[in-house]
Design brief:
Layout lengths: L1 H8 L21 H4 L6 E8 L2 E11 L2 E2 L11 E3 H13 L8
Antiparallel strand pairs: 1-2, 2-3, 2-4
Length: about 100
Amino acid sequence: MVLPLVSLINVNGAGEQIADLSQLDQKGWINYHYFPMGANLQMVFYHNAKKADDILVKVLLNEDEATIPVKTDCAPYYHWKDVRPYLMQRIEGFKPYEKK
């Protein structure tokens, strides 16, 4: 279940659509880099007691810092107020694959 979630969120560019499967290696999409045995995705939330409304999020893929396409001024952390709308937009825009 990690593959669909990481692709949906576009962690480390895993959500890029590649039409020609022979281009996967050249685009850097090597499945065992994303999904070794025991793969996991973590979102760690940090709460600042001095700034209660500024929650930070760090994304980890297999315990390594990961990126998502959200602007931040404090990498590798993201402001939750920026991440949440991005995630909601991705979820709401998801369309299941339909056979033709």
